[in-house]
Design goal:
The chain is of the alpha/beta class. It has helices spanning 14-30, 60-72, and strands spanning 3-5, 35-37, 75-83, 94-101, 109-112.
Length: 122
């Protein structure tokens, strides 16, 4: 089985980052890969506010990744941010989440990083 590692540099715009994922997924599929793996923070680069883009794994960004998996008939593993438990003083927090979705587009898996530095808060 061929597996592609896509080392991309993301920015603050989740839609632009999704286009990078599309481009590299197409390249991986064209090269015969059955799986393409993207880094954490594929949704939005670290160093930018993360709570505004955090969404459930059933949200629009993850659904778009599922659509790419269906379109290119490939498994995609990509990092995103999901809503976390607010801090004691009520500040929003995020969870650094990895999703894995297959060509069927449904289901898939997720992994949450248990330690995400949050001071200063993201």
């Amino acid at each position: 089985m061929r597996i592609a590692a896509a080392q991309i540099t993301t920015g603050p715009d989740p839609d632009a980052n999704l286009e990078l994922i599309r481009e590299y997924t197409a390249r991986a599929a064209q090269a015969g890969a059955r799986v393409v793996v993207f880094p954490e923070a594929a949704q939005r680069a670290f160093g930018h506010p993360l709570p505004p883009v955090a969404e459930p794994v059933t949200g629009a960004w993850a659904e778009a990744v599922r659509g790419l998996a269906r379109e290119f008939q490939i498994v995609i593993v990509a990092g995103m941010f999901t809503p976390g438990v607010p801090s004691a003083d009520g500040r929003p927090r995020v969870v650094n989440t990895l999703i894995a979705v297959g060509p069927a587009g449904a289901g898939g898996g997720r992994g949450d990083r248990r330690r995400l530095r949050q001071d200063p808060p993201l």
